[in-house]
Design brief:
Helix 5 packs antiparallel against helix 8 and helix 11 runs antiparallel to helix 12 (244-250). The protein has one domain: Orthogonal Bundle (Tetracycline Repressor, domain 2). The N and C termini lie far apart (60 Å). The chain has helices spanning 14-24, 33-47, 53-82, 100-118, 123-130, 133-138, 149-157, 159-169, 174-195, 199-205, 210-240, 244-250, 253-262, 269-296. It has 297 residues and is mainly alpha-helical. It contains 14 helices and no strands.
């Protein structure tokens, strides 16, 4: 398979086809979806203690679709690179299981389904949601030009902070913006660790990432700083909203994440992968703290 990847794919059984498209959406990695979903859950639940189940379902399904579409576009752009990276060489497009044309059609279908969900929300949220499509197409190219694609990724992944808030209030407010900035540091932190999985391959291929910029020596310190800013932002939101129970619910998580960082080995891809996926679990724990605060209040 050369750089001119075929526009058609080999014949697969129905099961093989479903599996390939599922892998293209990263359905085999379910703990990544909360990284897209939780910012919206946090924002909507902080904006109101009584969020409509319909809104929560829209964000759940929407996060799966947008994440899937984003991963599809990413794999479509990076298929030549993915074939030379140990961690990604078996991805469906790079492996020739799904053609570029099929992948593009699949991405469009996911975007259309996500649009259908978006149209069930209020006009402010629809407008916000429509603004995120173009950045999703831009992101895969950034690793070729900048060491900080993680910043742009954070802007995309955490857009749910703004949409979650407006889906309930129909307007933006300072707490939503503070939450968005806090989550931006969260993404920079965990995705820098994620990028260390491909540290050697990215160096060899001449690609860029925050992991390569900060290096192995300063990597953990940098990620630790990102989490300090993340939790500071969350505590700031709790203070602004006069929600002490939410603030106190964060306290057990702070030493836990720093304990995780203490035992993190940036030279070990499996250690980096485990830390990255654990953030999905932490996202639900933070939401549980918000729900507890809403219940008590």
């Amino acid at each position: 398979m050369n750089s001119n990847l075929k526009s058609y794919a080999p014949s697969l059984t129905v099961f093989e086809t479903i599996k390939a498209y599922g892998r293209l959406m990263r359905l085999h990695l379910p703990l990544i979806t909360p990284l897209y979903l939780c910012p919206a859950l946090w924002a909507s639940s902080l904006a109101s203690p009584h969020v409509s189940p319909q809104i929560l379902i829209v964000f759940l399904l929407g996060s799966v679709l947008i994440r899937g579409a984003g991963c599809t576009i990413n794999d479509l752009v990076d298929h030549d690179i993915d074939r030379h990276v140990r961690r990604t060489k078996e991805r469906p497009i790079a492996a020739g299981l799904i053609s570029k044309r099929q992948a593009l059609v699949f991405a469009i279908c996911q975007f259309l389904l996500a649009l259908g969900l978006l149209l069930t929300l209020n006009k402010t949220t629809i407008l916000l949601g429509s603004l995120i499509v173009v950045p999703i197409f831009i992101y895969p190219f950034l690793k070729r030009f900048t060491y900080w694609p993680q910043i742009f990724l954070g802007m995309i992944v955490n857009w749910g902070c703004l949409m979650g808030w407006t889906s309930v209030t129909n307007t933006l407010a300072l707490p939503a913006l503070v939450l968005y900035v806090a989550c931006l540091f969260w993404t920079i932190g965990y995705d820098t660790v994620y990028a260390f999985q491909d540290y050697e391959d990215d160096q060899r291929l001449g690609l860029k990432s925050s992991a390569l910029k900060v290096g192995l020596q300063k990597g953990v310190f940098f990620v630790r700083l990102c989490y300090v800013l993340f939790f500071s932002g969350l505590l700031g939101v709790a203070l602004f909203l006069k929600n002490p129970i939410f603030g106190f619910s964060l306290i057990p998580l702070i030493p836990l994440i720093f304990l995780k960082l203490k035992y993190l080995s940036l030279k070990d891809p499996s250690s980096c992968g485990d830390f990255f996926r654990w953030n999905g679990k932490m996202g639900f724990l933070i939401w549980a703290g918000i729900l507890l605060a809403n219940f008590v209040r």
